[in-house]
Automatic annotation (TrEMBL):
Highest taxon in the source lineage: Bacteria
Annotated coiled-coil segments of the chain: none
Name of this protein: NAD-dependent epimerase
Lineage, broadest ranks: Bacteria, Pseudomonadati, Bacteroidota, Flavobacteriia, Flavobacteriales
Keywords linked to the UniProt accession: NAD
InterPro entries assigned to the protein according to its UniProt record, in alphabetical order: Epimerase_deHydtase, NAD(P)-bd_dom_sf
């Protein structure tokens, strides 16, 4: 198939694009390469896909690399570009779209709301219009566990009420689900939203806890532990997330006999909740260093616990996460030390 992967220089988008390419699909990747975090990390991901920094830096210019040749094209652009995005659809004739581009981050949305509206709402509407006018077989898009807000029912299930988001980021992700429903209803576009639960692993984002903790511990700085460590997360390794996304892209859609069959929402997580302090212990063990901890109160927009019920995704797409926390944290710290040329202290038993 020919698949558009938005956010292809991002954490999840990079892994998905690479896996699709290795499985023989044609991929067109787009990413605006903004500077929300270290842009050099984004260039490094693209380099792993064979796209040089010089080529990737150019705006609205299709480029290919030596690694995958014409099988992979990359274009630096934003999805909110209302004139340019339709041209890509007209030229490339995609079979399916995997939409992973978004302005990420819960706390950043409190300080910089405009970029979330531009990318996550305006850009998403632009993408939906392109799918509508170009006969896309299936739109798969990233939602988030943050839509559950202050939901007290554990584990989180897709039928739970998600009408009370507590961050603008969460509100934009909820809006994406509502907009997808509208387009599925009006234009019969199959749409599948995946609510990601705390994705971590190699090539991860520098603003996320595992990266921040590892960096601080290596440098001998205190780590910021919010809610005094009384947090629990359904940490999900990138390999499991990627496998789940690929299954949704490749496999036949589930029952579509009615409107509800065109519009699907799934949790995609590890289906267990891990205490934040236990997560930190794994990082310490792998780095061979004890973290200095700065215990802080809960941050605005945060929730105390997440935990995914993944029964639906297991039933429809045979999704089964297999990476435990010990192996997952090790995979990240190994990558981190290799990427930044750091010698690990012997891991603690």
């Amino acid at each position: 198939m020919k698949i558009l992967v938005t956010g292809s220089a991002g954490f999840i988008g990079f892994h998905v694009a690479r896996t699709l390419l290795n499985k023989g699909h044609q991929v067109v990747g787009i990413d605006n390469l903004n500077q929300y975090y270290d842009i050099e990390l984004k260039f490094a991901r693209l380099n792993e896909l064979g796209i040089s920094k010089d080529n990737a830096s150019r705006f609205n210019v299709s480029c290919t690399g030596e690694l995958y040749g014409e099988q992979f094209k990359f274009i630096r652009m934003g999805i909110e570009e209302r004139e340019n995005l339709p041209k890509i659809f007209e030229t490339e004739l995609f079979d399916k779209v995997c939409h992973l581009a978004a302005q990420a981050g819960v706390r950043y949305s409190i300080e910089n709301p405009d970029v979330y509206i531009d990318s996550n709402v305006v850009g998403y509407a632009n993408l939906l219009e392109c799918c509508r006018h170009h006969s896309i077989q299936h739109l798969i898009y990233a939602s988030s566990s943050s839509v559950y807000g202050l939901n007290k029912k554990i584990p989180f299930q897709e039928d739970d009420q998600v009408d009370h988001p507590i961050s603008l980021y969460a509100a934009t992700k909820k809006s994406n689900e509502l907009m997808a429903h509208t387009y599925s209803h009006l234009y019969k576009i199959p749409t599948t939203g995946l609510r990601f639960f705390t994705v971590y692993g190699p090539w991860g984002r520098p603003d996320m806890a595992l990266f921040l903790f590892t960096e601080a511990i290596v440098q001998g700085r205190p780590i910021k532990v919010f809610n005094k460590g009384k947090m629990e997360r359904d940490f999900t390794h990138i390999d499991d997330i990627t496998a789940g996304i690929i299954s949704v892209i490749e496999k036949k859609l589930p029952d579509q006999k009615d409107e509800k069959g065109l519009y699907k929402i799934y949790n995609i997580g590890n289906s267990r909740s891990v205490k934040l302090l236990d997560f930190i212990v794994e990082i310490e063990r792998n780095l061979g260093k004890v973290a200095l901890k700065e215990m802080l109160p809960m941050q605005p927009g945060d929730v105390q616990k997440t935990w995914a019920n993944i029964d639906r995704l297991m039933q429809d797409y045979n999704y089964l996460p297999t990476t435990n926390i010990a192996d997952g944290v090790k995979s990240f710290t190994d990558w981190y030390c290799n990427y930044y040329n750091i010698t690990k202290t012997k891991a603690k038993a």
